Amino acid sequence: MHVISTRGGDRCTVVEALQRGLARDGGLYVPEHWLRFTPADFAGQDALCDIAAVLLRPFLADSPLAGEVDAICREALDFDTPLVALNDGRTHLLELFHGPTGAFKDVGARVLAACLSRLRPADAADLTVLVATSGDTGSAVAGAFHRRPGFKVAVLFPEHGVSPRQKHLLSCFGDNVASFAVDGTFDDCQAMVKAAFANAELQAAVPLTSANSISIGRLLPQMAYYAQAALRHARRGGAALNFAIPSGNLGNALAAIWVRALGLPVGDIAIVTNANRALPDFFASGEYRPRPSIATIANAMDVGAPSNLERLRAGFADAGGLHTLAVDDDTIRSRVRAFLAEFDTVLCPHTATAAEFVAQRRAAADPRDWAIVATAHPAKFETVVEPLIGRGVPVPEPLARWLRQPAQARPLRAQAEALATALRAG
Ligand SMILES: *Cc1c(COP(=O)(O)O)cnc(C)c1O
To answer: Shortest CA distance to 184 belongs to which of 168, 207, 160?
Structure first.
């Protein structure tokens, strides 16, 4: 299948888009046309990898990966994304945190890595995946490319901008992963990465690639857990399932909107942000105003200028059945506590924004089934969550295994030249 740029000046195959990231006209790739699936297309399929394979097969038909779709999905998606019914019988938690680094970003990053490693000629020079992160993206990408022949990973994170556990996770992979603790902000990290990509001399010596969230190779696989949850709900006799989605750059929510466009039984979709309210303001006014990001306790959603909005505006902004809400830090804190009291379940601060949306719907007498999308495990945000609930959060096994590894990050000055020197040194 082909994809086109949101800016109209580029068209290529899905595989070319995976390798390129950003479109050649500076836009973002979106599918050229929308297939239609029916639940019958998924008959007998329940595992995440099997549902992903059904969804991805037409996108990769007639490509060098056409015969590899099953193997890619089985290798990348070897964990479940359970839809857990809570004790009121109509609120559900879609747990996307059972992958190796405890956040939904494992899904997209691992499928993208499995695709790119199969597309890489065996005799090509090593490619360095360069990523700036405020937390979850960096560990998901590092984990996905860890020990893959032909790839190196360089992760930049703000030394004082991540939780102690996140810092450990970002720094414990070793082997082909180099972790840099930058003495600056996330914005500094991003500026350094941007400067590296703009430095032709550096790239001649050290071939670079990105795996950031604008890659369509991360968005398409994310459709699989929405399809799986919607199908599971329908098979239990439920109507179209509604989703409340903690959102920052909008990649996760866009996957839900796309899979609904493909014909899956998805109902309403709520795009819920923290105090960074560019998206709710856009929906309220029709006007998009990007702005500097505000630091919040749901820091993986601290995005002032959500780049995937460009994809939403290319056909879906008036799709109907979309809601938005911005949730401030105090409300996040009280929702984490209230949710624990009501449902005996600990949420991460990001997930609590979506829980707040659903609580407001219940207060407005909405009786429908809503799935709160749990984007990360609360144990990753221990410094926020544990003081709120007054006890420790047990660390689940895949995460605990990484946290037992020794961690070593290299300190790096927040300067483009310092990064170039470190990359050249290998
Ligand atoms: C990245 C992230 C988000 C935001 O996802 P987007 O696709 O950028 O909207 C929400 N929650 C957590 C835990 C994340 O890591």
So the answer is: 160
Q: In this structure, is residue 418 part of a structural domain?
A: no
Q: Measure 343 CA to ligand 1 centroid, in angstroms.
A: 23
Q: What CATH number is attached to the domain comprising 335?
A: 3.40.50.1100
Ligand 1 contacts CB of residue 250 (under 6 A):
yes
The distance from CA 288 to its chain's CA centroid, rounded to whole angstroms, is 22
242 part of a folded domain: yes
Question: SS3 for 356?
Answer: helix
- Domain of residue 363 covers 78-104+216-399
- Please report how the helices 164-171 and 136-145 are oriented relative to each other, as an axis angle in degrees rounded to 10: 20
**What's the whole-model pTM score?**
0.96
**pLDDT tens per residue across span 318-372:** 778 999 999 999 999 999 999 999 999 999 999 999 999 999 999 999 999 999 9
Place of tokens 């799986």: 228
Residue 389 lies in a domain: yes
Task: Report yes or no on 169 lying in a domain.
Answer: no
Indicate which residue's Cα is closest to atom 2 of ligand 1: 300
Give the span between the Cα atoms of 24 and 59, in whole angstroms. 20
For the CA of 252, the nearest atom of ligand 1: 7
